[in-house]
Design goal:
Two copies of one chain form a homodimer. By secondary structure, chain A is α+β, with helices and mostly antiparallel strands. Chain A is built from five helices and 14 strands. Chain A is globular.
Chain lengths: 249, 249
Amino acid sequence: MTYCVGILVRDGLVMIADTRTNAGLDNIATFRKLNVFEKPGDRVLTLATAGNLAISQSVVSLVTEGIENPETGETDTIWNQPSMFRSAQLVGRAIREVYRLDGPMLEKKNLTFDVSMLLGGQIKGGRLRLFMVYAAGNFIEATADTPYLQIGEHKYGKPILDRAVKYDYDLHDALKLGLISMDSTMRSNLGVGMPIDFAVVRRDGLGAEASHRIEAGEPYFHDLRERWSAALRKAHQDIPRPPYGPRES
Amino acid sequence: MTYCVGILVRDGLVMIADTRTNAGLDNIATFRKLNVFEKPGDRVLTLATAGNLAISQSVVSLVTEGIENPETGETDTIWNQPSMFRSAQLVGRAIREVYRLDGPMLEKKNLTFDVSMLLGGQIKGGRLRLFMVYAAGNFIEATADTPYLQIGEHKYGKPILDRAVKYDYDLHDALKLGLISMDSTMRSNLGVGMPIDFAVVRRDGLGAEASHRIEAGEPYFHDLRERWSAALRKAHQDIPRPPYGPRES
């Protein structure tokens, strides 16, 4: 499994991804799932991936090496797209290309073509945007109404986002919420694990304001986990006991 | 969808179930999924159901009306089993009987035989026990190590249980935690909805200490939701901002 979340607030974008992959419970490994493509002053794109690792790595290789555009004859790469929308289309085309190459054999083996991606970032002259690209190569975009998107094992970490994430939230507070969401997921699902990669992109910064790997035992994250646990404990202890006595119904 | 949770603590048992059923998003209805079988002083059993409503209703009818026992020639019902273990076996047999009757046609229609149940309670002379019965009719039991079991849409409401539920927790605090878990699930999944049924069974009480339906807008539950939201907000606000500045990696 995997858990990745992207949060788009007024001030910028946060992308967070775990690094655990597993082929069965007895075969787990660490792979980077958060990719940052940065040409300071020109563009910064972050691409987080979930699903079949062979598919997602091929997609990342394709968008990096480039895909020939049959209409223009040019080679399209993540580095030369004129807009975020075009970049999301490129990721979608790369997914379809991998499907064309590997899909039939996967289907013969009864394996689903399972992949999804979050693409967020900004290109000079355009807006900061966040997309979720599906296995069919189509995509949706986060908006001020729903400023976060998740891929992978999304359910455990969704309640805190549903309650707390707002578009006008501070950028680094959004990172904090994303880390809490990741913590909740890791506690309940063994398929999501440390270390955690994240990137913070400030709107119009055209570069990554922070890009970091949180290793197990890192003091801030350890403290966040402890504080969150303690606060949850206190929160439910502070709620009065239910008043439902014997035989009410 | 459905969400049901059973929590077994030293002092007793809590069973909670929502009441929403849906056949597609445009066809939702309210059905009771928590059944209480009570003969005060002799036995109290609670049965919560998830999955295909036709299957689960048939199972409840079968265990109430009885199934003939081919070995003894007697009619076994939920009212005459000598132990909780035997009662769980009876629920399993009822599930298999419904599978025998309806399974082949469901398979022809490409519908999965989808059902799961929580059975908790106590019979005079025996222990208070909590079981989860699967669609195959087999079952597992909650223990002091893992004192809660869930069926249906379990992921959203699991983090709070994973963190907070302990076997030595007060019985009515366990109910409170279960209601918080239900609230988290209802906020994130439209397929789980009010009203909420619950039952509280005190160990060796041989009767339901409380059995109640919480309707939308009921003051205690409304207050619990508000307090929990406010506490979560405060909890994440109180955690310091991440210290990850520009370009650390």
